[in-house]
Recover the amino acids of this structure.
């Protein structure tokens, strides 16, 4: 299987690209430190000579220079390079957390439903059906402010971690069902197989059967689903921040950079800005989806795509 | 002046990702800024006192606009529909704009130059701007001959009396309160006790307050001198209402007008069409013109939309001009940088001055050193930037606007003009002296795009000085309700205020008089300083406007520099553009926008 994956050139390249993004996200503070800037400095006030009074960088292409590699953000003049690094970091962090949470929930409920069957299966499946019927995007938009306000004290600013936790919570809440359903089906099929019967006859407790016999056999769908879900969560998180209900300024975030790029100020004066979050996100999503395909092919070479 | 007109600048971000086609590069920011000098001169001229004109100056018709010719239709994109058309209910910006064409009052501002910068208060319905013989206690007005409502009936002193008396009726609750308070000689809303039902139940104001001895004469009698009366009467809120045609609440939708245009149709939230009022006699009116046949006003036009349409300049947009919509912040650099747009662009001041209020009801804010540290540290450049740069906002030194008598351009106690990004080092020193490093500041900001942008950068500046800034967003719709609560959570927050006429007497008393602190009132910083209070009383009694202006400026300097309950941020400006076929486009400093009375079709 590993050999099959290595033979797939696209898959390997995608894997490198994806790994690069994760590395960038992980090392953002280190890179920013070496580069000597951070995404919170208001350069429009620190270095007013680089901006006109409306906060548009005076140099063309958003003030790209040897000093500011990706230019400066119109408005408050944040450094685009570090902002992008930290933005990737925030977005990937949230998405990885959501993926882990949904995968765990999916395994827990899906395998339970499939293995136990009967009433447990019935109720878990109804819950899955019920949650699947929710319009996810609308639910996110409507519930984000509510979830955030649950945590906030009246005299303090909404701390960033509250928004992060809220983002993870709402996406987790409506994210685990598809995986749960798949695992339920797989487990249901596995349950009837001879080796499980054999294990039962030999007196293995259910916990052991699930851990030792079932879980190793559902790793494939978990991995495949996981690699499909993560880029989806990245775009969903970006979408929420784009709509203004996710991460807000000044905390850097990928999606929020798109929101900034679509404002009239940036659109009219510095279209170059759009390319940095735009291209990086396209590359990441495409690479991750190709990786997902390759992983699936490697695990399961017989099915056609 | 009403606040709602300016503050609901809800910016709708356009999801126009499709625009990202093949425009690979973008040029840099505009290098403009050369017209700063010119702006300063505008202000200089404005601050020269607006005089009260005599009978000769009040004679119609108004001087011709050079090159003007009659006929044609002008379309007017507007953002907000008109909630009120009854003059007594009009107190917000956009409604005052249309009222210039519809309603006439006893006095009005006459532009004495063709650039909208020099003005004089003259008699509009009255033969002059008013005569007083006892320093402003008694004011006498005589009505002109030939003045009529749109239905052809003559305007008499009975209509003026009716217009004044109905201000006391309960359903009139949106307009300015000055004249009523002066007549009743009480502050606040107690004036309504003078005539609780207005004139509608047969009761009238006694001759000791308002006298109309014959059909042409009106005499106002106050207990205290009110030398500002001609200014006050020029407000739309005191324009004439027809006694015969008064339909009370319904008048708000269909008023009987006296100006050069009347309403042909009005669909609230959609459109309004104005046509010529044939019963308006230009010979009686020193202020207005009637060149255009029709104005078609379309509502719900956001700033981005109207800017793009006017820049594109095609079809009916060539004869379009917006009275209130300014160029939106995002397009501002581009419009100002385009030489083709120059002849179609006008720039001027609005009467608003922005300020960061420091909430004195909170214990930590009562330490003057802390307030001074805030004043030094606070960057005002983010505010200017958020609204589109120096063409939309000018860094303020004090609280007296350049459009108000007594403005002193050199007054700048916190060095904001030279260094708008603030002086965190000095602030830090003050905080250390006071032992208050790490003071928590709860910063309430309006959750608009602009509010978001300037509050983050302001917070960054304050944090550099050693404050612990906690930003709290407040929804735009309830912003003023929240910050004008006596018991609110915010240590600092931004508000703006405009003078009702070019005198600080409509700025300082409502904002800084400690005796008017009340739930929902405008003393946002809740300052109650005995010297401010006593000075307000003293200066209000000065009859000479020039002397009063100088004294107000002195008091304003004391407030900004010694009390430090507020930090001035910016004088509001605005850039407006018109279609290429519209003539007579002039930015009028008194109106604070394009003067609709001078427009014609080329």
């Amino acid at each position: 299987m590993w050999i099959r994956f290595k033979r797939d050139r696209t898959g390997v390249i995608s894997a490198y690209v994806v790994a690069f993004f994760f590395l960038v996200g992980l090392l953002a503070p280190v890179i920013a430190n070496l580069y000597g800037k951070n995404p919170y400095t208001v350069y429009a006030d620190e270095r007013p000579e680089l901006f006109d009074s409306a906060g548009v960088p005076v140099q063309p292409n958003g003030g790209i220079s040897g000093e500011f590699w990706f230019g400066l953000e119109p408005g408050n003049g944040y450094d685009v390079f570090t902002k992008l690094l930290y933005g990737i970091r925030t977005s990937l962090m949230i998405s990885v957390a959501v993926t882990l949470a949904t995968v765990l929930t999916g395994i827990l409920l899906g395998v339970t439903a499939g293995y136990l069957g009967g009433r447990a299966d019935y109720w878990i499946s109804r819950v899955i059906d019920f949650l699947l019927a929710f319009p996810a995007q609308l639910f996110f938009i409507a519930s984000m402010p509510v979830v955030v306000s649950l945590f906030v004290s009246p005299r303090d600013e909404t701390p960033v971690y509250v928004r992060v936790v809220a983002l993870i919570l709402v996406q987790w809440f409506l994210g685990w069902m598809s995986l749960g359903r798949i695992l339920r089906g797989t487990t249901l099929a596995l349950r009837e197989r001879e080796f499980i019967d054999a294990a039962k006859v030999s007196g293995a407790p259910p916990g052991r059967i699930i851990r030792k016999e079932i879980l190793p056999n559902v790793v494939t769908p978990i991995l495949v689903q996981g690699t499909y879900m993560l880029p989806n969560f990245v775009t969903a998180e970006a979408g929420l921040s784009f709509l203004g209900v996710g991460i807000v300024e000044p905390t850097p975030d990928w999606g929020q950079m798109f929101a900034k790029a679509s404002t009239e100020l940036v659109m009219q004066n510095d279209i170059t800005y759009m390319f940095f979050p735009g291209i990086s996100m396209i590359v990441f999503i495409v690479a991750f989806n190709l990786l997902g395909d390759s992983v699936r092919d490697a695990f399961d070479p017989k099915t056609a795509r | 002046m009403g606040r709602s007109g300016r503050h609901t600048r809800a910016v709708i971000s356009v999801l126009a990702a499709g625009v990202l086609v093949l425009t690979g590069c973008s040029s840099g920011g505009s290098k403009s800024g050369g017209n700063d000098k010119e702006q300063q001169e505008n202000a200089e001229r404005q601050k020269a006192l607006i005089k009260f004109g005599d009978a000769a100056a009040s004679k119609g018709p108004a001087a011709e606009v050079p090159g003007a010719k009659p006929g044609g239709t002008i379309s007017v994109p507007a953002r907000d529909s008109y909630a009120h058309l009854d003059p007594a209910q009009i107190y917000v910006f956009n409604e005052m704009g249309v009222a210039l064409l519809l309603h006439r009052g006893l006095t009005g501002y006459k532009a004495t130059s063709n650039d909208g910068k020099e003005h004089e208060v003259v008699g509009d319905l009255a033969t002059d701007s008013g005569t007083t013989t006892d320093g402003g206690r008694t004011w006498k007005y005589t009505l002109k001959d030939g003045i009529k409502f749109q239905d052809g009936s003559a305007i008499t002193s009975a209509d003026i009396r009716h217009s004044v008396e109905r201000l006391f009726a309960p359903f009139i609750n949106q307009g300015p309160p000055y004249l009523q308070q002066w007549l009743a000689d009480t502050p606040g809303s107690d004036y309504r006790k003078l005539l609780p039902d207005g004139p509608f139940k047969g009761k009238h104001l006694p001759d000791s307050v308002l006298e109309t001895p014959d059909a042409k004469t009106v005499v106002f009698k106050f207990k205290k001198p009110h030398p500002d009366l001609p200014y006050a009467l020029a407000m739309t809120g005191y324009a004439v209402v027809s006694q015969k045609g008064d339909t009370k609440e319904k008048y708000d939708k269909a008023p009987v007008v006296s100006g050069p245009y009347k309403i042909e149709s009005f669909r609230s939230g959609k459109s309004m069409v104005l046509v010529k009022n044939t019963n308006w006699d230009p010979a009686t009116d020193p202020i207005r013109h009637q060149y255009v046949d029709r104005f078609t006003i379309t509502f719900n036009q956001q700033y981005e939309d109207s800017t793009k349409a006017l820049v594109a300049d095609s079809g009916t947009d060539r004869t379009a001009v917006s009275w209130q919509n300014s160029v939106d912040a995002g397009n501002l650099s581009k419009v100002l940088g385009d030489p083709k747009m120059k002849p179609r662009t006008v720039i001027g001041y609005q009467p608003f001055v922005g300020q960061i209020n420091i909430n004195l009801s909170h214990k930590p804010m009562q330490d003057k050193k802390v307030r001074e540290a805030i004043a030094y540290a606070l960057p005002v450049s983010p505010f200017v930037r958020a609204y589109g740069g120096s063409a939309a906002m000018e860094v303020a030194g004090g609280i007296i606007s350049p459009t108000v008598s007594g403005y002193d351009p050199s007054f700048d106690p916190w060095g904001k003009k030279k260094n708008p990004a603030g002086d965190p080092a000095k602030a830090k020193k003050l905080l250390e002296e006071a032992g208050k490093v790490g003071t928590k500041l709860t910063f309430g900001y309006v959750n608009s795009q602009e509010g978001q942008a300037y509050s983050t950068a302001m917070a960054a500046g304050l944090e550099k000085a050693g404050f612990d800034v906690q930003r709290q967003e407040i929804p735009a719709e309830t912003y003023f309700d929240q910050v004008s609560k006596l018991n609110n959570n915010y240590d600092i927050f931004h508000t703006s205020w405009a003078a009702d006429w070019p005198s600080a007497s409509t700025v300082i008393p409502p904002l800084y008089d400690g005796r008017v602190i009340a739930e929902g009132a405008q003393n946002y910083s809740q300052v109650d300083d005995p010297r401010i209070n006593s000075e307000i009383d003293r200066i209000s009694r000065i009859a000479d406007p020039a002397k009063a202006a100088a004294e107000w400026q002195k008091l304003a300097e004391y407030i900004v520099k010694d009390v430090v309950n507020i930090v001035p941020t910016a004088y509001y400006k605005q850039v407006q553009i018109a279609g290429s076929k519209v003539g007579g486009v002039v930015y009028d400093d008194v109106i604070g926008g394009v003067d609709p009375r001078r427009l014609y079709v080329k």
Remarks:
- The mean pLDDT of chain A is 88.
- Residues 2-299 of chain A form a domain with the MetI-like fold fold (CATH 1.10.3720.10).
